[in-house]
Amino acid sequence: MRLMLTKLAMLGALLVLCAGYTVAQPKTASKSAAKHRHSKGKPAKSSWKKKGQQGIAPERATQIQEALIREKYLTGEPTGTWDARSQAAMVKYQGDNGWQTKEIPDSRAIIKLGLGPNYSSQTLLNGAPKPAATTGTAGAPSTTASRGVDAGDKQ
Questions:
Q1: DSSP characters for 2-71?
Q2: Closest of 53, 58, 61, 55 to residue 90, by C-alpha
Q3: N or C: which terminus of the chain has fewer CB atoms within 10 Å of its end residue's CB?
Q4: What per-residue confidence (pLDDT) applies to 104?
Q5: What is the rounded CA–CA span in Å between residue 57 and residue 75?
Q6: CB-based contacts of 131: which residues, under 8 Å, 6+ apart?
Q7: Which of 52-61, 63-72, 102-111, 122-131 bottoms out in mean pLDDT, i.e. has the lowest?
Q8: Measured between alpha carbons, how far is 145 from 54 in angstroms, rounded to an integer?
Q9: Taking the model in full, what pTM does it have?
């Protein structure tokens, strides 16, 4: 009987210790509770300026649509608005060329359509083309000014 009482006392003590251990363990907060707890105090910072291109201008949309029509990815006339039909044509064009289809339009697609920047050697070497002179004879540039000769003193 004494052995049984000892075992019963030890079992009781073990139960008390286990119960105390489970109460003492810290509880993990759920994600929604954690978000709610962090939202108190300072508000989350957000950018006041939107990043990246916000839309496609009507002139640019017309240029892109004309190029997609030329390449047979779009049918009809260019509308000048970047709509779902234009978006789908550009996705197909980029996919057919093995490019990503999440960012529309991709710079590589614009360049391949012939709408990218002009990096010809003529433009790079000489800079932007200058307008033709409207004064003078036959539009020919005068070299007398560079020699210090007055235009009225020509022989």
A1: HHHHHHHHHHHHHHHHHHHHHHHSPPPPPHHHHHHHHHSSSPPP--SS--S-----HHHHHHHHHHHHHT
A2: 61
A3: C
A4: 82
A5: 20
A6: none
A7: 122-131
A8: 50
A9: 0.47
Q: Is the pLDDT of residue 25 over 80?
A: no
Cα separation, 108 vs 88, whole angstroms: 17
Task: Give the amino acid at 107.
Answer: S
Q: What Å distances lie between residue 125 and 120, 128, 129, CA to CA?
A: 9, 9, 11
CA-based nearest residue to 68, from 119, 114, 123, 14: 114
**Which residue has 């539009």 as its token pair?**
139
